[in-house]
Amino acid sequence: MLRYLLTPRWIAAHVAFILAIAFCIYAGWWQFGAYEDSHGRHADRDREPVLVQELIGPDEPIDAAADRAVRAEGRYMAELQHLVPGRIRDGVLGWYVLTPLRSDDGTVIPVVRGWVMEPETAQEPASTRVAITGHVLPPETPEHATVRSGQVLEPDELAYIAPARVAEATGLPAGETVRGYLLLNSQVPPAGDVEELDVDDVAPIRNVNPWQNFSYGAQWWVFAAAALVFWASAMRASIRSRRRATNEQDASVSEPGLPRVPS
Hints:
The protein is of the alpha+beta class.
């Protein structure tokens, strides 16, 4: 009786309903995950700074350390300073100032010290020992580059901050360098040649309202339940209709036919 539910037409319907229900469940989980990711990243940025060496070593992925506040001590490698053009601060186009810092244990940390409106104002930092705090951010990708197509960069410029680009520009071996960069928050002694950058402006986190995401996630799961109910109802209605037709056919066969009245 139910074999017809395995016909090609019904199999296609089953697959469509299963995919729809799976998509709704996934979308609901994604909404909850979006909130958890946003909340977790904000919480990481608000933690007290720890030594960068406690979170990440040279040439290691920084996934677990991303967004964390860190501190480091060492000396800037002023001769390897580079500028990253096409970066906006408060609606004004300028340059990021990237200077590697060799920490006390020998690890090299690319540090975005700040922003300048004109490249000539970015001075080389003194070779004195400094103590810095900042946030660890992941390497940039080509999509972060804001230079024009075909634009020729100056020898002291980088299109975007990535391990391969930093290594090529500075000559630093990858085995000594952190595979991301540190966005400077404060420095002792302070440097006055650059303007500070806010981590939430450089790498913004989408603010997510937990109740909004909860409602969206619940809605997707309601859609999944509705699709399941509709699927079951469609099969039930089809079975009832088929049984009714079969019963009517059996009844017409079992009853004797009435004689026809000639006209």
